[in-house]
Amino acid sequence: MAKIRVGDAEETVVTRGEWPLERAAEVLRDETIAILGYGVQGPGQALNLRDNGFRVIVGQRRGSPTWDKAIEDGWTEGETLFEIGEAASRGTIIQYLLSDAGQIARWDEVRPHLTPGRCLCFSHGFGVTFNELTGIIPPGEIDVVLVAPKGSGLSLRRLFVAKKGVNSSYAIFQDATGRARERVVSLGIGVGSAYLFETDFQKEVWSDLTGERGILMGAIAGVFEAQFAVLRKNGHSPSEAFNETVEELTQSLMPLVAENGMDWMYKNCSTTAQRGALDWRHRFREAVTPLFDELYESVRTGEEARIVIEACGRTDYRERLEAELSEMADQEIWRAGKRLRELRP
C-alpha cells in the first residue's frame, strides 16, 4: 500500500502491482465468499471472483428472475447457488450486495450467521452509516469492510472481460480478527479493481449519494433535458438537438476526457468551442454550486437516506418506479436517442 499525492492531498492506494492476484488468492485461500444478492453488483463481483479462482457461492431468493439469471450464469442450485440464509451460513466472507432496501428487509435473516471471525463486506456504506434508520448494526466479533467499485456491476464485468478494471474504494469499519485489511484488499483485487483508494463508510456513502443525485445521473439527465428542450423550442430537429446534447458528449468528448483530462479534450477541439466553453463554464459552476451545497447537506443529515428508505419500502414501489422510468423513456430526447442509436455503424 502506497502513499501518493493526488492534487493537494496524500492518499493511500493499492495497485495490482503491489498486491497481485496471487497474493490475494493466498490470503483468501481458505475462505468461502458468499455473494448475497444477484441484482446490480452481485453478478459482476461474483463472476469476476469465480473467474479469478476464488471459492464463491451465491445467495438469492428462489423463484426470482435473478435466481434464474444466476443459473444462466453457471451457478448450480445446491452447490454454488442457495437461498440467502443458507448461503450466509456457508460463507466465511459475506458480501452483502442486496439493494439498500433489501439489506434492511433481510438483516434479521443474515444477522444470526455473523459468528465470530467472519467478515461482512459491503459495496456501499448506506446500511451501516444510517443504522438508526436501517437497523443494520454488525456484531462486534466480526470484520466489517467495504469494497465499492466506482461503476455499475455491468461495467465491472465488461471491463474485467476486456482485461481492464473499475477503480474501487475500500474501507474498514471494524477489525475484529486483525485480518480485515488483508481481507478487504484481497477482495478488491479479486473483483477486478484497477486500483483501490482508501475511504471510510461515512465518506463513501456521502460521496456516492451526492454523485448519483448530482453529476453522475441526476444533474446530467436534467442538463441533457434542458438543453435539448431549448434547441427544439428554437426549431432544431430532434437529430440535431440530440447529437449536440448527448451523442457528441458520450461518443466523442467523454472518451477524450477519460484518456487525458478535460484540458486535453479542450486542446483537441476547435478554437471556437474552446473559447465558449472556457467562458461559460464559470457561469454554470456558479449557477449550480448552491444546488450541490443543498444536495450535500441533504445527504449529510440523512434526509436523502430517509427518503430512499420510505419510498423503497412502499408495497407499490416497483410499479411507481416503472411508471417514472416509462415517463423518462417516452420523452422526445430519449425516443430520439433510441432511434438514432440504431443508425450507428
Question: How do the helices and strands line up, and which of them pair or pack?
Answer:
Layout: E1 2-6, E2 9-15, H1 21-27, E3 33-36, H2 42-51, E4 56-59, H3 65-72, E5 81-82, H4 84-90, E6 93-96, H5 100-110, E7 119-122, H6 126-129, H7 131-134, E8 143-149, H8 153-161, E9 166-174, H9 180-190, E10 193-198, H10 201-213, H11 218-233, H12 238-260, H13 262-267, H14 271-300, H15 303-312, H16 317-329, H17 332-341
Parallel strand pairs: 3-4, 3-6, 4-5, 6-7, 7-8, 9-10
Antiparallel strand pairs: 1-2, 2-10, 8-9
Helix pairs in contact: 1-9, 2-8, 10-14, 11-12, 12-17
Structure description:
- The chain folds into 2 domains: 2-199, NAD(P)-binding Rossmann-like Domain (Rossmann fold, 3-Layer(aba) Sandwich); 214-341, no CATH class.
- It is 56% helix and 15% strand.
- It has helices at residues 21-27, 42-51, 65-72, 84-90, 100-110, 126-129, 131-134, 153-161, 180-190, 201-213, 218-233, 238-260, 262-267, 271-300, 303-312, 317-329, 332-341, and strands at residues 2-6, 9-15, 33-36, 56-59, 81-82, 93-96, 119-122, 143-149, 166-174, 193-198.
- The chain has a 10-stranded mixed sheet with strand order 1-2-10-9-8-7-6-3-4-5, with helices on both faces.
- Strand 4, helix 3 and strand 5 (81-82) form a beta-alpha-beta unit.
- The relative contact order is 0.10.
- The model has no long low-confidence stretch (mean pLDDT 95).
